[in-house]
Fold this protein.
Amino acid sequence: MTEGLQFIRKKEVALISIVVIIVTSYSMLVYQQYIAEQNIRNNIFRDYRNNQLEITKALSEHVSSDLRLISSILQGLSDSAYLQQGELYGDRVAKLMDERFDQINNISKIDGLFIADKNNIITYNKVSAGQRSFVNIDISLREYVNETRNTLDPVFSNGFEGIDGAYKIALTYPVINRESDEYLGMVGVEIPSVDFFARYGNVYNVNSQFLVTYDRNANYISTPRTNFIGKNLFSDEIQRFFNFNVIQNKYYQDVFDGNLFGGSATYDFGTGERLNTGYPVSVNDVTRYFVFIITPTASVYQDINETLSEERSSFILLIVGITAAIVMLILFLVKLNTLLNDQVKKRTKDLQESNQRLKIANDQLNVHDKMQKEFINTAAHELRTPIQLILGALEASKYETKNEKQRELSNIIIRNAERLKILAENILDVTKIESKTLEIKKEIFDLNSLVLDIIKEYKNISNSDKRIKFEYKNLSNNISFNVFGDKNRIGEVIMNLINNSVKFISKDNGNINGSVNQDGIISIIVGKRKTYNKDTNVEQQEAFVSIKDDGEGIDLEVIPRLFTKFTTKSFQGTGLGLYIAKNIVEAHGGHIWGENNKDGKGATFYFTLPLNN
């Protein structure tokens, strides 16, 4: 009896010990899970913050590049032969201003492009639709006007309220005679600040990640809180709104003073926590503006919580499995369990070491890929500004000389500079495609008219030394039809395909075709066709364009990778044009393909676009 009681007591002690061990183990597992979740939360937030810092820096460089490009266009205008001779108005100046106005508008929407004489009187003013033109108006009261005249340097103005009540920034360039150093006046452009910075991020909604920008005086020039625009960040009105937040104020002051590059701040001023990353916008090594990306951390933690929820579910399933295994095996497999634990630890250590090696290798690959993309993107941006300056200077000098030999040399340089400009723009397009930031600005336009305009333009500005005959046919009997898309991007596709055809037309083709006045023929057909939409089960119409040449045709080795990057058999190209064309067409919901002609002479490329019904 006594031995039985002892056995029962020992059994009870053993069971209690097992329960204690299980509870203790589970408690430790839960605690470890909690620590792991906290580490995961911190790591994800840190990665998000670092990513936002990189995005802010890239955005700052993008704004800087666009501002430099606009300034270089103004410089080219200032250095033009007409303005250098003191001709600040007239028909010739008007034509030149129209061209530069369109160039700048392709970079950013502007309110007006103007010329002012040395007395600060506007002599010519080209404005956007709906804007009022000001001529013979004295603009001496504008701060940027006096700054331009006093410094004789390009000026990137602080924010100011325009006559129409909209907030703006201005870029100016002095007109100084190169021979006498006489100040003749200035050229400038006024840009609506909110519209300008809206191209780079959200400036309208504070409930998601948004963009805020300031001028050099810490005045708002764009923000979703429109009542703040034009006001100083450190004014009593703004500070009261932010409850005089010390962390926020110190962070902004450090960025404005140039004491902090690549930093961030997280704070709550009463309406929710925010993650703020800022960077100065510098042009010619001088800070002109400041950009900040602000993210409500609630949206960040929402993603983190979703990730942790998945981890927690996996953890619970693991606990359930372990419990079942313990109940079934603990009494029978104690020794085996000890051995198994040793094996698990060994395997875990091996796996961790393997994962660490993989992580290091992956980090090295990511760094290499990031450096490569940053270099290509920066190089392409930096190429655009000097190319534009070279073209502007050459155009100006070409018309100043009467020497035909010099003009011919200038034309050669201009043609090759244009090719270099196209290459830089192609590289930029590729980086935008790969980073999924390629902008498509859709509008309704006549595809028929666009093709005719491009053929006419190509004939007028063609830099090819080949004699090309164009044949054009509209299968819709010259009836115009509309498509909904980005007119400039579709024009880029057509020019790429024409240039591709010209590239593979031999200069000896004239003898083959029996004509000494041409090297080849490019036939362009525009029309409509019916197609079946598998998603909607509806028959619909689409526009198509075909571009046929009688050149060398497509090399059979190239056909399988025709529309991939760097695919070319020609020493004249980089192999980017067809890749860019494919991505533009597909972004519109169309298709593009190419094939050799059945008669063995040349090739034909086709692309389709949805019609605007």
